[in-house]
Amino acid sequence: MNTSVPADWYLLLSAALFTMGVIGFLSKRSLITVFMSIELMLNAVNLSFVTFAHEWHAVKGQIFVFFVMMVAAAEAAVGLAIIIAIFRVRGTLTVDQIDRMKL
Amino acid sequence: MNEPMLFLPLIALFPFTGFLLNGLFGSRLPKALVSTIALLFPLLSFAVVARAAWMVHGGMLLPMAEVGTPTWIAVGSFHVGFQFVLDQLSLVMLLVVTGVGFLIHLYSVGYMEHEQGYWRYFAYLNLFLFFMTVLVLAGNYLLMFVGWEGVGLASYLLIGFYIDRKSAGDAGKKAFVVNRVGDFGFLIGMFLLIANFGTLNFHQIGAQLTGHVAISGAAATLICLCLILGATGKSAQIPLYIWLPDAMEGPTPVSALIHAATMVTAGVYMIARTHALFDLSPTALMVVAVLGTATAFFAATVAMVQTDIKRVLAYSTISQLGYMFLGCGVGAYSAAVFHLMTHAFFKALLFLAAGSVIHGLSGEQDMRRMGGLRKAMPVTFWTMTAAVLAISGFFPFAGFFSKDAILAAAFQHGTLGKALWTVGLITALLTSFYMFRLWYLTFLGEPRSAVHDNGHDDAHAAHAHESPWIMLLPLIVLALLSVSGGWIGIERFAGFLEPVTGLAPVSDAGHTELFLSVLAVLVAALGWFLAHLFFGRDGEAAEQAAQSLAPIRRLLEGKYWIDEIYTALIVRPVQWVARFVLGWVGEWTLVRGSAWLLAGIVGLSGELLRRWQSGNLRSYAAWLAAGAAALLLFALAGTLLGLNGFADSIHWAVR
After folding, report:
1. pTM value?
2. Which of A33, B47, B417, B648 is the most buried (most CB within 10 A)?
3. Per-residue pLDDT for chain A (103 aa), expressed as one digit of tens each?
4. Complex ipTM, two decimals?
5. Residues 587 to 616 of B: which have CB under 8 A from any A CB?
C-alpha cells in the first residue's frame, strides 16, 4: 500500500500549521487574527491526533478530535462574543491597546 | 447495699447552676428573679450540707467518699479522680461556707440593691461558692487546687466589681498576681508530692505516712515549705499578705464572705487537711507558727491607726488568720479550725455591720467622719457590739473560746511556744484596742461628718438611717452565732475533729488553763480600757498620745512601707526586666523583627511579580508560549537523557 501519503508528511504539515499559529498568535495585532491563529493551532493538533490514530490503529485519537472540535466551537462562540463586546466598549481591536487585563 | 446517699456533688453543683443561670440570662431577668436564683441555690446547697450533718449526727460513719467521675487524669500508675470526700473537717468547713455564705447572699440583696450589674454580682458570688465547696470537698490536692484557683478567680472578679474604678481593677490584679506567687509554691509542692508518693490523694498519702514513713524529713520539710508558701498567699500571711487590704475595694459583702469568712481561711484548711505531713517536719511547723504570730502582731499594729473602717477589719482579718496559723504551727489543728469557725461568724458579722454603716452613710468609709451612730442604727450597733466583744475575746463570746484554745496550746509548746504565746497575748491586747477604737469612733460620741466635710455632701453621720430588714436579719443570726458559737467548747470540738486532725496536744492541769483564760480576758479588758481612754470622750487624748509617739505612728500609718519596699525590690526590677530585656530582645527583635522580615519578603516578591501582570495581552501570550516550549523542552530532555520516570509521567499525563 505505497500509494498513501506517509504519516511523516502529515506530521510535518501539522507542525508547520502549529508554528504558523504560534507566530500569528504572538505577532498579529488584530484580535481577530490572534483568535484565528488559536483556531489554527487547534486544528494542527487535531491533524496530528488523526495521524497518530490512523498510524497506531487507535480510535481514541479520533474521538479526542471530536472533543477538541466541540470545545473549539464553544470557544469560538464565546470568544467572538467577547471580541464584539470589547469592540463596543473600546472601539478598537488592536491588541496593544487592550492592556487593561491587570488588577 | 443500703448506703446512705449524701449527694455531695450537688453541694457544689447547685451554686454553679445559679452562676450559669444568672451569668447567662441575668442581664435580661427582673431583679426579683435574679435574687431568687441567687438565694435559692446556696440555700439548697446548705440544705444538702445540713442533711449530711444530720446524718452524721445520727451516727453515720465518716469519711464518706463519693466519686463523681472516676478518673480525671491517668498517666501510667498515676491517677487523679474527681473525688468528693466528706469528713468531720470538711463538714465543719461546709457548714461555715454554705451557712455564712447564704446569710451573706441574703444581706447582699439589700446591700447591692441600687448597684449597677446586680446580676453580675450574684453570678460571681455563686461562682465563688461553687469553687469554695469544691476546694473543701476535694479528695485530692489537684481537685483542691481547682477550687483554690477558682476562688482566686471569683475573688479577682469581685474585688474588681466596680469596673468604673481604676483602683478596684488594680486591687483585683494585685490580689491575682500575689496569689500566683503562692500558687507557684502550691504547684511545686504538688509535684514533689507526686515524686515522693506517686499520688495526690489525701487518703492514700495519709495511709502511706501512717503505714511506714517512706519519706525523709528533709523531703517532708521541703514539701511543707512549698505548701506554706501557697497557704500564705491565699490566707494573706507574711510575706504575701499585701493583697488583702487592697481587696477591700470590692463590695463589702464580698469582703465579708471571701476576704474574711471563707476564702482566706483556705490556707489554714489546707494545712489542717495535710497535717500528717506537717507533723513529720518540726521545722515546717515552726515556720508556720512564727509566720502566723509575726503576721498576727504586725497586722494588729497596723490596724490601730487605719482610718478606713474596712481596712481596720482587713488588717484584723490578717491578724486573726495569723492566730490560726499559730494554732496549726503548735499542732493544735482543731483549735485553729475552731478559731476559723468562730472567726467566720464574728468577722463576717463585723464586715456586714460595717457594710450596714457604710450603706447608712451612703458610701462613707472613713471612721473620722462617722460617730454617734448608736441612736440611728440600733440593730447594727448591738450586733456590732457582739462581734467586737467576740473578736476581743471576752467571756462568754465565741472568740474567747477559740483564741484561748490557740493561746493555751501555744503556751504548752515548749520555749518557743512561750515566746509565741507572749506575742499572741500582746496581739490580743492590740486586737481589743483597735476593735474598740473602731467601735467608739463609729457608734459613740457626736456625729463628726459636718466637721471635716470637704466635698462629700451626701455623707452625713447625723442623717444616717438604719438598713432594711433583709440586711439586719443576717446580722442578727450572725450575732447569735458570735455569742454562742464557742459554747460547744474546744474539747468537744477537738473530739469531733479527732479522726481528721489527730489528737490535740494534751492540756496541763486545769489551773494553768484557767489562769491563762483569766489573763486573756484581763488583757482584752485592758485593751477596751485603753481605747476608752483615748477615744471614749473625744479624740484629744488620742491626739496627744499620737503626738508623743509621732515616729511610731508614721511607721504604722505607712504600714511599715511594705508596699513601697516590695515595689522597689520586686515590682520595679520585674518591670525593668519586662520593659528593657523582654521589650527589646523579645518584643522588638524577635516578635516585631520576624514579622517585619516576613512581611518584607512577601511585599518584595509581590512588587516583583506585579510587573509580570502587565495587562498586555501579547506579553501574556508570549509567556504562555514560552511555558509550553519549556514544558516541551523538559519532556524532550527527559526522554533524551533517559530520565524514564519523568518521561513516563509526561506520557501518562498526555495519554
Report:
1. 0.78
2. B417
3. 456 788 889 999 999 999 999 999 888 888 899 999 999 999 999 999 999 998 888 898 899 999 999 999 999 999 999 999 989 988 888 888 877 766 5
4. 0.79
5. 613-616
